[in-house]
Amino acid sequence: MTITIQPTRDYLLHFTVKPVDKDFNLKIESQWWGAADRYSLQTKFDVTLPAHELRQLALAIDGGIKS
After folding, report:
1. Contacts of the segment 55-64: beta carbons below 8 A, 24+ positions apart
2. Which of 11, 42, 16 is nearest to 29 (CA)?
3. Are 42 and 27 in contact (CB under 8 A)?
4. The Cα angle at residue 33 between residues 28 and 37, in degrees rounded to 5
5. Stretch 41-53: mean pLDDT
6. 16 CB contacts (<8 Å, ≥6 apart)?
7. Are 10 and 21 in contact, with CB atoms under 8 Å apart?
């Protein structure tokens, strides 16, 4: 599953979660439309975690938003 957010007019962030064996991979890539190749992606974060740790990360993000 991939979601894309656009924090500014010319900058995109792509968040992808996919299964890898018994774990899940979370990858965050950026795309800047002002770059020489506006379609190229730059990996900013790439980690593989068990499902329970990925859920903990999601809860921490949600908790940070609520506080």
Report:
1. 57/26
2. 42
3. no
4. 90
5. 96
6. 1, 2, 25, 26, 27, 28, 29
7. no
Q: What pLDDT is attached to residue 10? A: 95
Strand, coil or helix: 59: helix
Per-residue pLDDT, 14? 97
pLDDT of 67 strictly over 90:
no
Position 28, amino acid: I
Residue with tokens 């975690």: 49
Instruction: State mean pLDDT over 48-57.
Output: 97
Q: Which two tokens stand for residue 26?
A: 């979370």
Quick: pLDDT tens for 29-45: 999 999 999 899 999 99
Alpha-carbon separation of residue 24 from 3, 29, 32, 61 (angstroms): 16, 16, 26, 17
